[in-house]
């Protein structure tokens, strides 16, 4: 590696970055991690050479940088992304190293006015996260969606320029300016890495909060008196679990079991902030059972039709009475047709 030029170091590192981007291996796979380490070695060496040779000067404008040197702007962006994919070692150190490379890449882009004003405002929020106001969830989500859309568009443009550059190798394409295509390709790659860097910086800040909190928990556990000192409060650890139903305080005023402090104000608050309708106090089944116990529910019958007693064939009087009843009913229906009493004032 000592004998490789800056261009060779960059090309090897960029190739490994692209291979890992398209790899189907998991990030914890040993082969994947070996490639990550190899890419970091190439790009780390390239970053040192860029700094030593002073390729990028703050006094130069973007147009003064040729396409061959402009691509070296991507070194720290690739480095930050690869370092972030490391799984071994102290996670806090890994996150801080990746953040340093990404911020250095974004600073160089800012110096040469490659980054847009909107992305610059987001970057300043990451650089000064303690004093910067936090965005609400809706605004943060909209920014993520917009960055994702721009990232997809830029990635598509990169692929189109790469295909156009491959076609320009044909001698028949005499009217194609290869240098302009290469410069547009590099600028598109830089814009793509700016969006990825903003995404990585946001995830780094979120993960750092969790990592620092885990370290504090481990420190509290290490300085605790027993293994459960990190999960129990000092008050709870001094309490006797067998005193669940005993007195709250000892004679000296020491708490003997957990308790909740409340007052009349809280009771009034609970009475005010409640639904404006009466809430049920029992289920339907409980209500029916209660009514049944009180004797308000009649069981049986209801659905069964009363059966008409059969008339004995030898009881002539009953048979005659039934026949006369049927005839009277027929006469009544003839004298009173259906709907006769509901003529709607038609006379």
TrEMBL record:
Say which domain of life the source belongs to. Eukaryota
Drop me one GO molecular function for this one.
protein phosphatase 2A binding
Gene Ontology terms: cellular component = cytosol
Q: Which InterPro entries match?
A: TAP42/TAP46-like_sf, TAP46-like
Which segments of the protein form a coiled coil according to its record? Answer: none
* Chain residue ranges for the region called Disordered: 220-254
Where are the bilayer-spanning segments?
A: none
Any one GO biological process: regulation of dephosphorylation
For this protein, the record's Pfam families field holds: TAP42
Q: Under what name is this protein listed?
A: TAP42-like protein
């Amino acid at each position: 590696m000592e004998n490789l030029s800056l261009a060779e170091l960059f090309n090897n590192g960029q190739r490994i970055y692209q291979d890992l981007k398209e790899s189907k291996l998991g990030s914890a796979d040993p082969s994947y991690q070996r490639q990550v380490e190899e890419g970091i070695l190439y790009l780390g060496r390239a970053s040192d050479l860029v700094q030593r040779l002073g390729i990028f000067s703050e006094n130069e404008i973007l147009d003064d940088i040729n396409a061959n040197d402009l691509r070296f702007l991507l070194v720290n962006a690739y480095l930050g992304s690869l370092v972030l994919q490391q799984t071994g070692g102290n996670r806090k150190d890994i996150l801080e190293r990746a953040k340093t490379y990404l911020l250095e890449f974004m600073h160089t882009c800012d110096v040469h006015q490659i980054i847009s004003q909107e992305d610059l405002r987001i970057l300043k929020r990451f650089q000064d996260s303690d004093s910067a106001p936090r965005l609400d969830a809706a605004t943060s989500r909209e920014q993520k969606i917009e960055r994702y859309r721009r990232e997809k568009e830029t990635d598509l443009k990169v692929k189109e320029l790469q295909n156009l550059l491959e076609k320009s190798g044909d001698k028949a394409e005499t009217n194609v300016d290869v240098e302009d295509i290469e410069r547009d390709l590099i600028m598109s790659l830089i814009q793509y890495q700016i969006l990825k860097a903003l995404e990585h910086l946001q995830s780094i800040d979120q993960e750092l909060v969790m990592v620092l909190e885990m370290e504090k928990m481990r420190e509290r556990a290490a300085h605790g008196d027993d293994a459960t000192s990190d999960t129990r409060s000092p008050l709870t650890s001094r309490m006797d679990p067998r005193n669940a139903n005993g007195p709250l305080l000892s004679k000296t005023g020491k708490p003997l079991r957990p308790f909740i402090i409340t007052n009349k104000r809280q009771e009034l608050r609970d009475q005010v902030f409640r639904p404006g309708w009466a809430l049920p106090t029992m289920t339907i089944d409980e209500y029916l059972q209660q009514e049944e116990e009180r004797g308000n529910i009649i069981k049986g019958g209801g659905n069964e039709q009363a059966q008409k007693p059969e008339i004995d064939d030898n009881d002539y009087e009953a048979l005659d009475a039934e026949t006369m009843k049927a005839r009277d009913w027929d006469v009544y229906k003839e004298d009173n047709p259906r709907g006769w009493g509901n003529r709607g004032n038609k006379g």
